[in-house]
């Protein structure tokens, strides 16, 4: 059995293996990054470390999410596997990522191996970032392909 | 052997040996300088350091390292014992050997491949020259095996002084310790109760492999000092008498032999090779060392005690530094959260203050762990200078000041090359030969002064020499010859600029390429490296007196002073090193100073065209402006600055009835930051300028690296994340074409020149005169040789031409009315004037060709006129113009003389 942290983006319930989640915060002092890709929501200061925030909705090919009372940021444990910027950094600092989501759900226990393939009627972006669908008591849980999500580009 | 030794132990050994080498070098230099007067502690320190290296090398079976260090030790021993004088020749060999040791340590696994035969032979020659061969094998070993106890003679001597006997005792781990119910610790404690253990080793040669080492009955050999007699000693040690042997110490008693070389019984393992055992790197012996605190301590004292350092992994420090950063932020939040309860909880203020202070100090302390003293770089220079001065046959002294000044580790590392270049330049070029120096009444010994100090949050490093200084003329000649500057540029350069040409790529003053310098890469590299570090380099020189090279560097790379700027509600940091200047263009001056060239905005700044970019536009941020009336932010729709109002805007403005024009409102003033990108400069228009802050650069996430406008991000003091602008990336993103502008600039300069020339052509100095009453004429002053006053009565008529006696000769006269349609001179005048034209090609001494009769001279003045053709044009008439509100005819007097037929001989 695996545990999944669940959250809502739009109508959908998404799940991430809880081992991949570092923490969940509510800090929306997001500094936008001009000229970056649209799914980059911006940067936040997480206790002295800079975290890049992804807008999951945009990444999946939808409209940007407005920040609501229920909004949260899911900080991921593993940094982006992109190259660290060279040059004058102190080295060793992790490239932290966070996902802006609409609402946080419960932690759900489920057998990951039981996941079905994602439905066929997906957009290209969805097809790339979704790894499967689990039927749970809360309804259909869409599993995210973390690795693909963290690969830049 | 080395397969047994864990790689990390070898790494430790190498690191330790390097440390030893770094202490050896300055000590050797001191020995050489002070000669016989040198403190014996210095020699001992060198000796011990080499000895430790030798020990480790032996333990890990690095043959080459061992042999060479052994020979060095031999030579040093002779020096210590006063048998060998510290001559330069000897030191050359020692230094050369030291370099070989360094090379071996650089790649320890391949250390046997480092050629060292020459050095070894030289060392041995020195040794044999004294008739003493130290490295000789003790004879009479069974099966050719040998065990050397390597001991500091001082320890042995002190033991002997106390009347102790020295024994070599062998204890077998099983037979003598385990089987008798001892633990090794108990055994040693017992041994220590009867005497002193000077040294010990386990015969690790006998160990086949790690797994089986405990099953084997390993012999532990002790060098043991006690006042007891041999039989009693064996009893005391609880060992069979046969395993305890007194050493023949007569030689030692005579206080000359530095080493005890006891013969040791062969070990059970047949395939052993000679090993010299040192305590530190041996794992088994660590156990022993731990239970022998006193012994270890005594050995530690013998080692260099001044260097209490610990090797720590850099990533560990980095991690600590990050944690400290988090702690500081946590503290800030805590303080903010509980300020309100200050009065409710007694003593809270004091606690907070305490936490506050400790946190700050801790953070500072951790930051300091990355700092290294500049001395680690400086310390290599005495040696370099020593070698160079011998090679160049100069006398050079090095003075070091401020070696304790600390810099970020990475900066220290990157300073090695630039400083080495500078120092070598000093020794090679700047410092004269002793003969030369004496000739100019300087001390025969030149000095190079290295000085590091803090100033204004930066580190300053100066390298001063008292050599010949830089000859600006020669530098300039060289630079021109090499095509680094044109002759025209050269003429305009200040002395300071000329001296700084030494930093130009490809510049070299050396007449010949020598082994040391003259390849023309040196100072260029210095500047590049220093600038890469965010630093700055300058040179000052006084001919004949010396040169000072001054480096200014930031304390750390991670923290850079930056200017914080704002565009709408975004903020950005611009590293100060990129900022050239800040220009403020008042709204009312915009039209004069900002214009468009080929669709691009440019600012006229001191006769240069500076390309401008609007930060908001480059970054795609919607511009806003504060409405002058309501103070509310509104979207700025203006497209250009130079020609900003479209018709639509104007109409809107009228409809809105705005009293004030935004174009002249102070809120429309432009803040322009001039940035440097390589050789080019450009201006960035921003809305706001905030402070200059010291920012900690954080790398950009891989997700946003595609955005070339930023070089990183940072967290401001208020916790806000902002981006750091990259000057080069911004210019690229804005599509700035510096070359286009250069062309435009050139075109303008030429136009300007042309205009000036044109203006100059219109401008003339003229002499204004009257002929007939009221008829005004002008002749260019440079066409006039003289003006003379004559009496009409003196005019003589010969044929139909009038003459006057002028300087003893007859000067033909011309009347204007004879050649053009003007009235004749008034007949009643008794006094007339002569305009004597200057004929081109004639000088003032030649006889004038003729004179033009006029009635009065009015003025000599500068006029700026455009001549208009005259209806009745005639010879010598240039045209007419209005001067002083009168129509004036401009004459060409030379042409007039020609027309009068007076120029026959000149033509």
Question: How would you briefly describe this protein structure?
Answer:
The complex is a heterodimer of chains A (153) and B (907). With 153 residues, chain A is mainly β.
Structure description:
The complex is a heterodimer of chains A (153) and B (907). Chain A has 153 residues and is mainly β. Chain A is built from three helices and ten strands; from the N terminus they run βββββαβββαββα. Chain A has a single domain, classed as CheA-289, Domain 4 (OB fold (Dihydrolipoamide Acetyltransferase, E2P)), CATH 2.40.50.180. Chain A is 10% helix and 42% strand. In chain A, the strands form two sheets. A five-stranded mixed β-sheet of chain A has the order 8-1-2-10-9. In chain A, strands 3-6-7-5-4 form a five-stranded mixed β-sheet. Chain B has 907 residues and is an alpha+beta fold. Chain B has a six-stranded mixed β-sheet. Chain B has a six-stranded mixed β-sheet with strand order 29-33-34-32-31-30. The longest helix of chain B is centred in the N-terminal third of the chain and has 28 residues, at 7-34. Chain B is elongated. Classes of the chains: A mainly beta (153), B alpha+beta (907). At the A-B interface, β4 and β5 of A face α13, β25 and β26 of B.
Helix proportion of chain A: under 10%
Write down the overall mean pLDDT of chain B: 74
Helix/strand class of chain A:
mainly beta
Shape by Cα distribution of chain B: elongated
Number of domains of chain B: 6
Number of separate strands of chain B: 37
The low-pLDDT segments of chain B are: 1-5, 130-147, 255-305, 512-521, 642-647, 654-660
Write the layout of secondary structure elements.
The complex is a heterodimer of chains A (153) and B (907).
Chain A: E1 2-9, E2 12-17, E3 21-25, E4 40-46, E5 49-55, H1 56-59, E6 72-76, E7 96-101, E8 103-110, H2 124-129, E9 130-136, E10 139-144, H3 146-150
Parallel strand pairs in A: 2-10, 5-7
Antiparallel strand pairs in A: 1-2, 1-8, 3-6, 4-5, 6-7, 9-10
Chain B: H1 7-34, H2 40-60, H3 63-80, H4 88-106, H5 117-129, E1 147-149, H6 153-161, E2 165-172, H7 173-178, H8 184-194, E3 196-202, E4 219-226, H9 230-237, E5 244-246, H10 250-253, E6 275-277, H11 283-291, H12 293-302, H13 314-338, H14 348-369, E7 371-373, H15 375-378, H16 381-392, E8 396-401, E9 406-408, H17 409-430, H18 434-439, E10 446-455, E11 458-465, H19 472-481, H20 487-492, H21 495-499, H22 522-532, E12 536-542, E13 546-554, E14 559-567, E15 570-575, E16 579-585, H23 590-593, E17 594-597, E18 600-605, E19 608-614, H24 615-619, E20 624-626, E21 633-635, H25 647-656, E22 670-677, E23 680-686, E24 688-696, E25 710-715, E26 721-725, H26 727-733, H27 738-762, E27 763-770, E28 776-780, E29 784-791, E30 796-798, E31 801-806, E32 809-815, E33 831-837, E34 851-854, E35 856-864, E36 877-883, E37 886-891, H28 893-899
Parallel strand pairs in B: 1-6, 8-10, 15-26, 19-23, 28-37, 32-34
Antiparallel strand pairs in B: 2-4, 2-5, 3-4, 7-9, 10-11, 11-13, 12-13, 14-15, 14-24, 16-22, 17-18, 18-19, 20-21, 22-23, 25-26, 27-28, 27-35, 29-33, 30-31, 31-32, 33-34, 36-37
Helix pairs in contact in B: 1-2, 1-4, 2-3, 3-4, 3-5, 4-5, 13-14, 16-17, 17-22
């Amino acid at each position: 059995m695996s545990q999944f942290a669940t959250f809502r983006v739009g109508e959908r319930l998404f799940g991430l293996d809880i081992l991949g989640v570092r923490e969940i915060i509510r800090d929306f002092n997001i500094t936008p990054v001009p000229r970056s890709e649209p799914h980059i929501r911006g940067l936040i200061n997480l206790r002295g470390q800079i975290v890049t925030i992804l807008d999951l909705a945009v990444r999946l090919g939808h409209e940007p999410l407005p920040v609501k009372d229920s909004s949260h940021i899911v900080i991921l444990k593993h940094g982006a596997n992109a190259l660290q910027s060279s040059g004058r950094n102190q080295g060793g600092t992790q490239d932290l990522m966070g996902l802006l989501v609409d609402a946080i759900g419960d932690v759900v226990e489920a057998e990951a191996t039981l996941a079905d393939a994602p439905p066929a009627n997906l957009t290209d972006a969805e097809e790339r970032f979704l790894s499967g669908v689990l039927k749970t008591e809360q309804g259909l849980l869409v599993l995210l392909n973390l690795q693909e999500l963290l690969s830049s580009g | 052997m080395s397969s047994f030794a864990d790689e990390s132990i070898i790494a430790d050994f190498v690191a330790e040996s390097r440390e030893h080498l770094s202490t050896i070098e300055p000590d050797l230099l001191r020995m050489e300088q002070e000669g016989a007067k040198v403190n014996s502690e210095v020699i001992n320190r060198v000796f011990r350091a080499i000895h430790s290296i030798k020990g480790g090398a032996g333990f890990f079976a690095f043959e080459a390292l061992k042999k060479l260090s052994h020979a060095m030790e031999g030579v040093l021993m002779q020096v210590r014992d006063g048998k060998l004088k510290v001559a330069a020749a000897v030191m050359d060999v020692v230094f050369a050997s030291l370099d070989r040791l360094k090379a071996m340590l650089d790649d320890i696994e391949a250390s046997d491949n480092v050629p060292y035969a020459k050095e070894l032979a030289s060392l041995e020659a020195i040794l044999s020259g004294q008739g003493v061969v130290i490295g000789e094998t003790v004879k009479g070993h069974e099966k050719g095996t040998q065990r050397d106890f390597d001991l500091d003679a001082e320890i042995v001597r002190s033991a002997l002084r106390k009347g102790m006997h020295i024994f070599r005792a062998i204890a077998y781990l099983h037979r003598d310790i385990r089987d008798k119910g001892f633990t090794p610790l108990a055994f040693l404690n017992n041994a220590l109760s009867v005497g002193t253990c000077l040294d010990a080793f386990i015969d690790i040669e006998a160990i086949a492999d790690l797994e089986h080492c405990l099953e084997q009955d390993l012999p532990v050999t002790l060098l043991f000092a006690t006042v007891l007699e041999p039989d009693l000693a064996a009893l005391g040690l609880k060992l069979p008498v046969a395993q305890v042997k007194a050493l023949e110490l007569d030689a030692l008693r005579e206080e000359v032999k530095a080493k005890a070389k006891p013969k040791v019984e062969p070990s059970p393992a047949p395939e052993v090779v000679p090993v010299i055992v040192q305590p530190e790197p041996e794992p088994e012996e660590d156990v022993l060392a731990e239970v022998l605190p006193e012994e270890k301590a005594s050995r530690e004292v013998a080692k260099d005690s001044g260097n209490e350092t610990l090797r720590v992994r850099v990533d560990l420090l980095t991690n600590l530094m990050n944690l400290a950063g988090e702690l500081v932020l946590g503290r800030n939040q805590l303080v903010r959260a509980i300020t309100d309860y200050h009065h409710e909880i007694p003593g809270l203020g004091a606690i907070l203050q305490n936490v506050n202070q400790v946190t700050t100090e801790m953070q500072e302390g951790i930051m300091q762990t990355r700092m290294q003293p500049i001395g680690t770089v400086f310390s290599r220079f005495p040696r370099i200078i020593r070698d160079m001065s011998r090679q160049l046959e100069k006398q050079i002294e090095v003075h070091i000041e401020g070696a304790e000044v600390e810099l970020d580790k990475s900066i220290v590392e990157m300073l090695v090359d630039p400083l080495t270049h500078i120092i070598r330049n000093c020794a090679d070029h700047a410092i004269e030969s002793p003969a030369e120096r004496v000739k100019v009444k300087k001390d025969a010994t030149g000095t190079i002064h290295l000085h590091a100090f803090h100033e204004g949050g930066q580190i300053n490093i100066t390298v001063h020499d008292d050599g010949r200084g830089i000859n600006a003329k020669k530098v300039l000649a060289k630079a021109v010859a090499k095509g680094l500057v044109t002759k025209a540029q050269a003429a305009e350069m200040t002395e300071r600029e000329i001296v700084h040409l030494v930093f130009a790529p490809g510049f070299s003053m050396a007449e010949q390429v020598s082994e040391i310098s003259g390849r023309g890469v040196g100072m260029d590299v210095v500047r590049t490296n220093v600038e890469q570090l965010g630093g700055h380099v300058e040179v000052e020189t006084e001919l004949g007196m010396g040169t000072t090279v001054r480096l200014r560097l930031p304390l750390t790379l991670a923290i850079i002073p930056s200017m914080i700027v704002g565009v709408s509600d975004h903020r950005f940091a611009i590293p100060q090193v990129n900022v050239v200047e800040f220009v403020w263009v008042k709204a009312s001056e915009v039209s004069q100073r900002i214009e468009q060239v080929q669709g691009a905005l440019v600012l006229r700044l001191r006769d240069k065209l500076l390309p401008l970019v609007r930060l908001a536009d480059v970054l795609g941020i919607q511009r806003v402006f504060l409405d002058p009336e309501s103070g509310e932010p509104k979207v700025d729709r203006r497209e250009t600055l130079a020609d900003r109002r479209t018709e639509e805007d104007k109409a809107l403005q009228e409809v809105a009835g705005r009293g004030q024009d935004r174009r002249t409102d102070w809120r429309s003033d432009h803040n322009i930051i001039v940035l440097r990108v390589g050789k080019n400069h450009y201006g960035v228009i921003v809305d706001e300028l905030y402070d200059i802050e010291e920012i900690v650069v954080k790398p950009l996430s891989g997700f946003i690296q595609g955005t070339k406008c930023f070089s990183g991000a940072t967290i401001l003091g208020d916790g806000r994340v902002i981006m750091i602008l990259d000057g080069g990336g911004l210019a690229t993103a804005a599509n700035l074409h510096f070359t286009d502008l250069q062309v435009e600039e050139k075109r303008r300069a030429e136009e300007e020149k042309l205009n000036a020339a044109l203006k100059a052509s219109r401008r003339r100095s003229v002499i204004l005169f009257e002929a007939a009453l009221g008829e005004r004429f002008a002749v260019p002053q440079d066409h006039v040789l003289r003006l003379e006053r004559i009496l009409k009565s003196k005019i003589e008529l010969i044929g139909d031409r009038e003459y006057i006696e002028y300087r003893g000769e007859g000067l033909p006269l011309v009347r204007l009315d004879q050649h053009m349609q003007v009235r004749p001179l008034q007949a009643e005048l008794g006094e007339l004037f002569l305009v004597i034209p200057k004929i081109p090609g004639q000088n003032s001494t030649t006889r004038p060709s003729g004179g033009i009769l006029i009635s009065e001279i009015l003025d000599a003045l500068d006029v700026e006129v455009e001549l208009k053709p005259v209806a009745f044009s005639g010879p010598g008439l240039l045209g007419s113009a209005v001067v002083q509100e009168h129509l004036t005819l401009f004459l060409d007097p030379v042409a007039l003389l020609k027309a009068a037929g007076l120029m026959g001989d000149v033509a």
